[in-house]
Structure formats: structure tokens, C-alpha cells
Design goal:
- This protein has 139 residues and is mostly helical.
- The chain is 73% helix and 0% strand.
- Helix 2 packs antiparallel against helix 3, helix 3 runs antiparallel to helix 4 and helix 4 packs antiparallel against helix 5.
Amino acid sequence: MNRWFNLMIGPEIYWLAVAGLMYLFGTRNHPATESGSRFLEQFLWWLPLVFVPAVFLCFLFPGAKWWLLFRINVTTMVGLLAAVWIVCGAIDYRDSRNSGVGSGFIVSLSLGSVLLLGLDLLAVGVLWWKSLKVVELAG
């Protein structure tokens, strides 16, 4: 595979697509309705619990693994922030319940960061294990 293909299927495009999807769902909630806002609230859980682990599927493609781990970390933090920001901006109950949207923002980013750290440690362990040279003893 050529170098540009590896860049095109990387975590940057993934998070751009996720943020675009959240934008499309957010525009469906205009004008804001209670059912639309409740639907968008679900994504505050889905983003860190499903979309953050899914970005690690980029390891299935060939390329520089340590550099890819760095790219995953940077783009996940920026992409998660953008996606959560878009979702929270589209939620509007038009009453006092809007004050809780900020808490959802913080919870979603915090949960995503903790999960990213755990997955990073797992990825570092796997990459380190794969880099070990296995010496076979001739019998």
C-alpha cells in the first residue's frame, strides 16, 4: 500500500467522519425538541464507550505502529472534544435542564480520556510484546 492510503484511512479521517455524523444528527434537532435532545444525550455515552475504542481498529492496517499510536492519541483528544462539543451544542431543552448539559460534556470527555489511557497501555504492551525477538533453541 502506498503512503497516502495509510494516511487516508488513519484516525484523522475517522474522527472527522464521527464529528460530521454528530453534526448531521445535531442538525436534525433543529428546532430543538425534547425527544431529539434525549436522542443526542445518548451520544455523550456512545462517543467515549464505543467510538474511542473503535479508533484502535486503525492498527489492523500496515504502517508505523508507534507513530500511529501518537496519531491516535492526538486525534482522539481533538476529535472527541469536537464531537462532544457539537452534540452538547445541539441539545436544548429550553428550560433549566440545559444546565446539566455541561456535566455531560465533562463526563464524556473524562470517560473518554480514561478509556483512551487504558487502551494506550494495552496497545503499548502489545506493541512491546510484538517487538521482542524470539530466540529458538536448537534441540
